[in-house]
Predict the structure.
Amino acid sequence: MVQDFFWVYLSFSELGVWRFACYNKETTVSFDKGKEYIQATCVNMDLQKHIHLCYDRLDELISTSENSHDDIINSIPRKQPGFDSIIDQTINLSQQYINTNLDIIRDSNREKYITPQNYLTIKCGTTKAFTEETVYAQIQGISHFLEENYIIVSHEELFRYNFIFRDVINSENIVIKVTLQNKTTQEIIILFYKKMFFHKLELTSPIPGITPQMQTNFNRTINEISVEGSEHFAVILVIPSTSQCLNNSLYSEYIHLGVFICKPFDYTKHIKDSKTACTKDYSYISYRYRNIFPIKNITQPQINEKASVIGGKRSKQKYKQSRKSRKSRKSKKSKKSKKSKKYKKV
């Protein structure tokens, strides 16, 4: 069957990562995640960039955040006209579409391994059965394995975008591609991760079903993770260099690395400690990934000129400025007119 269309949906817990949409009609509670919770349905990264670019320019958008960096585009908030209907509409998939794509999503042959199996006992979304110390130890174990066996060949920024998480956090996302080579076999693998900056959004009205005390607890977490200048990280995909893009946008192969690959936020019910909850359903977990290879070795990703265009009015000079310079730009910006930024349809 030659597929001429496919559906994708936004992952809110991954802050705007696009995922392949397919479900089993007998259990249509949620989209199927496949063999590997994070990677099995991750849409090709070039397509991710293209979709973000198109959505940002569908219509004239207004950025109301005074904290947004000058050089990062502002993705359509979920409540913008037209966006709700596209994302929230009921998708009635044909049985042929379901049969074909569920087989691909669940195909164990797509899953490749480079680490010993005992490194992979914990997966993202299954950490509730383990202590936080055990989860952290496994992440660090995989990090050490990669650092001992691979070298960084190159790294580059692919694209930037903004995403509003549950109306409480604006996340500025930078997607970075890292090429790694095995020191012994010379085999190449590709790792994609996100660098994120969070900005707290002020609630305009109480959230239904949330008590003032609950909101106070949520605000505590949000305040802690949205400190000006603080950086957050998440590895979202690792593939062999031989992995190809299938005709439904999925990768033909991905590398299973357990909990090393995860989302910035996870369902609170999936984790043992809910002290980092920031909404009724979600807790922040990116603190686990602050010091892992290769992220800790990369301070300034090389700049992809095409990414600069998509990133919106960004230059090498701006990108290389330090956090102090970023604050200086923010200070200058506050002296300008309070008019919102506008992005026009092209």
